[in-house]
Amino acid sequence: TTTSSSFTANLSASSSTLAYDREFLRTVPGLLMVTEIVLGLLVWTLIAGTEYFLYPAFGWVMFVAVFYWVLTVFFLIIYMTMTYTRIPQVPWTMVGLCFNGSAFVLYLIAAIVDASSVTKDLDNHNYNSWAASSFFAFMVTSCYAGNTYFSFISWRSRTLQ
Q1: DSSP for 53-109?
Q2: Which of 12, 35, 89, 119 has the lowest CB atom count within 10 Å?
Q3: Dist CA 48 CA 112 (whole Å)
Q4: DSSP of 93-138, one letter per residue?
């Protein structure tokens, strides 16, 4: 006789159908997340096209921009595929609040560092790229602030976005 564990049976049954929540992109948090991805991509590509590695301040901005861009793409995939419903042990509202809150704080610091480091005296050739990256960094910061607000509301009401 052959027996299978309930874990294996549940895994094979649940992985056979992959859910797709296209309605998530129509919500304000979903739209903010897509905006964070697009604008965050602009921030780090504008800096990556320069000699940022010569200036530690821009290295910090690059780290924050790339780190949160990758994590935001990861969370978008989790929400779009409704993976959070398959892992109920994770407190997703708390995870979302911590993620968005930390992204807001670190992006705000990075945007301020970026803006304060942009001078024509530093490097006239890269001035426009750095100035544009500073502008978009503040835009991404405002998006993360909005998502932090919605995450807080979701956490407070103990419901999942």
Answers
A1: GGSHHHHHHHHHHHHHHHHHHHHHHHHHTTGGGT-TTS-HHHHHHHHHHHHHHHHHH
A2: 89
A3: 18
A4: HHHHHHHHHHHHHHHHHHHHHHHHH--TTT-GGGHHHHHHHHHHHH
Q: What CA–CA distance (Å, rounded) separates 11 from 8?
A: 5
Residue with the larger pLDDT of the pair 66 and 88: 66
Measure CA of the first residue to CA of the last residue in the chain; give whole Å.
45
Q: Residues 107, 61: contact at Cβ < 8 Å?
A: no
Cβ atoms < 10 Å from Cβ of 101:
17
Q: What is the pLDDT of residues 120-134, one digit of tens each?
A: 776 677 889 999 999
**125-144 as b/e: b if 16+ CB within 10 A:** ebeebbbebbbbbbbbbbbb
Calpha distance 8→51 (Å, rounded): 51
User: How far are the Cα atoms of 6, 13, 15, 112 from residue 3, in angstroms, in the given order?
Assistant: 9, 16, 20, 60
The string of pLDDT tens digits covering residues 2-35 is 544 444 444 444 444 667 888 889 999 999 999 9
Contacts of 135 (CB under 8 A, 6+ apart): none
Q: Mean pLDDT of all residues in the chain?
A: 86
